[in-house]
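pasting for ref
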Amino acid sequence: MLRDKNLIPLSHQHQHALALCVRIERASPLPEKDLAAWQSEVAQIFRGEIKIHFAAEEQVVFPAAREFEELTALIGDLLVEHAELRTEFSRAEAGELNGGALAAFAHKLSNHIRKEERQLFEKLQQLLSTEELNTMGGHLNAALEGSVQECALPNPATQLRKKNG
């Protein structure tokens, strides 16, 4: 199903985060000398985009979804995942993640995004009227104000390089 125009800003931010996840997965195992750079990039995307993104989902999208009993459990799961991911972002900012933990983080974030896109957004597009989606879109635009809307370029240490062998 095509993404409704009112959810596209969130989907674009999901694409930015997925790009980071794919880069982490492809670069793994991450060289010890590059861990600080990767953690810095993870923290940067959280501060510039995901922190505001999570708040927008929690303040606008999740309350709209809670109106439907069939989405209640999914919203509960997504809120737990937001809390877990916030912890991982904080750990990255503090430089506490090793290569394995960064790879696990990327996997967790990727799965979370896919769950929102494939389950929550698809179902909301079926359940909400055009008017309700438009209203939610207006609230989302206001909630997302101040967040970065373009994909960040990797720093030299986190650019994908051809692997030897």
